[in-house]
Automatic annotation (TrEMBL):
Catalytic residues of the enzyme: 359
Gene Ontology process terms (BP): amino sugar biosynthetic process; carbohydrate metabolic process; fructose 6-phosphate metabolic process; protein N-linked glycosylation; UDP-N-acetylglucosamine metabolic process
Task of the protein: Catalyzes the first step in hexosamine metabolism, converting fructose-6P into glucosamine-6P using glutamine as a nitrogen source.
Encoding gene per record: glmS
Full-protein residues shown: 244 to 607 of 607
Catalyzed chemical reaction(s): D-fructose 6-phosphate + L-glutamine = D-glucosamine 6-phosphate + L-glutamate
Group of enzyme by EC: transferase
Protein species of origin: Qipengyuania flava
Main localization (coarse): cytoplasm
Protein name, entry field: Glutamine--fructose-6-phosphate aminotransferase [isomerizing]
Amino acid sequence: EKGNYRHFMQKEIFEQPTVVAQTLGSYLHRADNSIALPQFDFDLSQIRRVTIVACGTSFYAGMVAKYWFEQFARVPVDIDVASEFRYRDPVLEEGGLALFISQSGETADTLAALRHCKENGQTIGVIVNVPTSSMAREADLLLPTHAGPEIGVASTKAFACQLAVLAALAAHMAVKKGLMSRDEEQEVVRHLLEAPACLNAALDHDDDIASMAHLIAPARDVLYLGRGPDYPMALEGALKLKEISYIHAEGYASGEMKHGPIALIDDKVPVIVLAPSGPLFEKTVSNMEEVRARGGQVVLISDADGLEQAGEGCLATIEMPKVHPLIAPLVYAVPVQLLAYHVACVKGTDVDQPRNLAKSVTVE
Ligand code: F6R
């Protein structure tokens, strides 16, 4: 049931603080701020390589996780979309953990990739929202997300929960490898536990985003830019907009703009910049200036510090709470979801059942 919401997607966006808290609750011990995973019978400290495979939005969750596995657990990560991975004869060495991320647990390409990895001696980790799904049944390490049923075709709350689980897994692997001290683990847990409140603070800007949607709705093309773990969020923002509003959108790593896409910029191409303040902020601001110098219309999504430094002269700004970098991707997913949602509402498209799309893609 949709309750007071117009669409399932809207309801699911607003459920994120609750379902992320539920999901974190099953991986984090509040009593001593430690991370605990469900039972499994292999040694996480012996994992020498992580291979992440998924499709669509779930793939973008994996892209964020690559930063975390490398940063915390210092383990090399290979990541690919399932439809490419399966057929490129990937090198799968002993001691590899292959991780599959899927809301439905039934996506045909991802399932085929899982079976290929299994046949090639990989330990199989599965992050899935449907615990009875095909992928769940084949897992050595089953890490459920507790998002509840996701009805809207565009994935939102399942994605947020995937990120929560992946952060916990990457940090836990670091603990097992002896690379994260007890103090550092407690700090990671504390930051993760801040996520639900920060998601709520991000959702508080729903009205601002709704009232700027008419600025984006007439566009034919929209660009999204982000750096580091916010780069996959730029890809996710573009995917959400394409899917439900049918506006052509592309996500780029901020620094890649000048290597091509900047040629597209004129005053009719809104550029959505995701940039929490921090060490990379200055660099992103200079990319933003390159856009503005060519007449580009920037929508800056940042925190109060970032907006104060660089908000002037933007087409619009969206203020996010100031958050720890670990949870920034989770929090910055909210404004791009809401923006896609409200633009779709302005355009009057079928938000929950976009044309040509199915909730679960069970053909390769
Ligand atoms: C985008 C979206 C799709 C799915 C993709 C994978 O909003 O919903 O891109 O993320 O089809 O689906 P799952 O996660 O079920 O494997």
